[in-house]
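ARCHIVE CARD
SHELF: 3
SLOT: left
DATA:
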Amino acid sequence: MASISPATPWHSRSRTNGLFNHTTSLQSAAGAGGRIKSKARFPCFVITNSVNPSTPPPLVVVGSANADIYVEIDRLPKEGETISAKTGQTLAGGKGANQAVCGGMLSYPTYFMGRVGKDAHGKLIMDALEGGGVLTDHLDEVSQVPTGHAVVMLQSDGQNSIIIVGGANMCGWPENLDDSDLEIVKNAGIVLLQREIPDSINIQVAKAARSAGVPVILDAGGMDAPVPAQLLKHVDILSPNESELARLTGMQTESFEQISLAVAKCHQLGVKEVLVKLGGRGSILFTQGKEPIKQSIIEAEKVLDTTGAGDTFTAAYAVAFVEGKPKAECLRFAAAAASLCVQVKGAIPSMPRRKAVLDLLQSI
């Protein structure tokens, strides 16, 4: 199993394959679909056989991109009932895009690999990713299916209920990823996956990462179905919230003892680290054979919208991890980022900048 100790600096890991070279033009291929070339905000990656120690290997997020249709309501409608929304708007989102923009806003070189339709929602997402500093060289447009979207029902207390329509996220992928996609995975510093794209794609990515010694974090959010064993055995860190952990293991997760037992089942399935997000109760990192590390929440001044908070936490943890911070510090950094996220409406619009996270940590 690949080492996932954050004490290992990124520049000490061997990178024998070619690195990345992106352009600064925005292009769309004709026909069935095309690759989006990124307007890069970070230094160019140069094809080379040796690592440039001044350029850190990127965070690579492979996952979903949605147009989130927000409706603000006082309460959820009952069966057969129609209610009126206070307001409605459409914003870029999706677990993969959220996490990628979080990485970009935290000033870490971040690539997003995903699929969008050739439609207005696809352009909305592309603009949001590039506006967040994300490199979109591996984001493809597909013409056969529309961009994925979600209906987000936001209640007055900041809690939300979400319905997802997969679209290009589920139907826009080839059977086998091409070599350029797998190459960037193999040269990543860390890879982030979620479950809003086909398991077959996640398995290909996780295998490629494992073959190159690149750590993989799987955010368990997304489809309500068992995680394939073929995927789990190539994951270094599994990151569910408590309800996802309960569904995945078939066990209760209401107390620390119950959570510990459920995590032990994950260890039995081959996952050595499990990062459990507990909402208002904070988070716990379980490493097999070691004492769990607990992190309480960092109180927000006012909770406006919890959408994207879990994505922010996971992505911020990944950034701190690949930068070589101790695990307890990674948790604290992630908690601060999530605290800032819930104070702004929308998913991608709420992703915090690095300076804001550091300022918050210094103030407590």
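SLOT: right
DATA:
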Amino acid sequence: MRCWSFGLRSKERRHAADSAHIVSGQLLECVAHFSYDELRTATDNFSTRNKIGRGGFGIVYKGKLRNGLRVAIKKLAVASKQGQREFLAEINAIALVTHQNLVRLIGCCVEGTNCILVYEYLENNSLDHALLGQKETRTRLDWQKRSAICVGTAKGLTFLHEEAVPHVVHRDIKASNILLDKSFTPKIGDFGLAKLFPDDITHISTRIAGTTGYLAPEYAMAGQLTMKADVYSFGILILEIVSGKSSSKADWGGSDKFLLEWAWELYERGSLLELVDPELEEYQEEEALRYMKVALFCTQGAAGRRPSMSQVVDMLSRDIKLNEKQLTAPGYFQDSDRLSVGPTSSKKPLSSDSGYRTSSEPITITHVRPR
């Protein structure tokens, strides 16, 4: 496993205690510094039995500290583009970004080549695990819980985009980065971490080829990273929460359509409720329809037409009529070098001078109007 090496060679490791003292002196009071031995003991030597997740940034283990506190321990597994001082500054910045819908950073370990982050432990694991995982790991989520997860996640993302200083573009909004506490309150994880890594060490390099996934077209194809790329990913997340299906599997409607493609086709047919998870025995039809339409507003091909996250919170939280006359077709991938807009029949390769535009419609913010 490869991580940071801040110039500490093997012969210098005997000075680890002094190094830890120096590191802790560069951290804010709210960020605890743990020794590697402490975290190794907490996870039973990083036992596979305690492994609870894995992502582009590393492996996550559940652990128990000496004081009895249960924590999630992320052992970072890629090389940083920064030195120790800059890395610790970013850790301090992440720790200061606090909200009820964001996973709280408790502390870290920077010792030799070991770089580990310690987070609060969320009892119900990830949304991916609870809703989209293997049948034996799934949790029955009724409509009330799913609705609350959509709204809570939207509020957390709004905080990152509009209230955190400096503003944070997450870059990797997906079901596995939405953690659920004992009451199924959603908390966004891994925010701020993207700044610590080289640009090629992201979800882009590990995404499944040929899937729509969560990536906004302009981000995946042109590297245009804005808040509207997060909005697109959140739109995909809503569709997964309502349908109970993964966006990465092309098996909708008895064809090879992906979730977003099928949702748009059903919308055009006026049959969007067919997308709702059949395991939802009771749900509010009007609310489910509004949520799915909000998802389509979020995934419009032209980034400028997508709402801001504060607008999304408003659209999800209030019983309002959406201005569907302004809704345009979504943008999504067909394969590694093709971009699609709308129904399968309209798919065309991008020309070299297209500028990765996915719609010729005027770029405006979508507005909502009260019912």
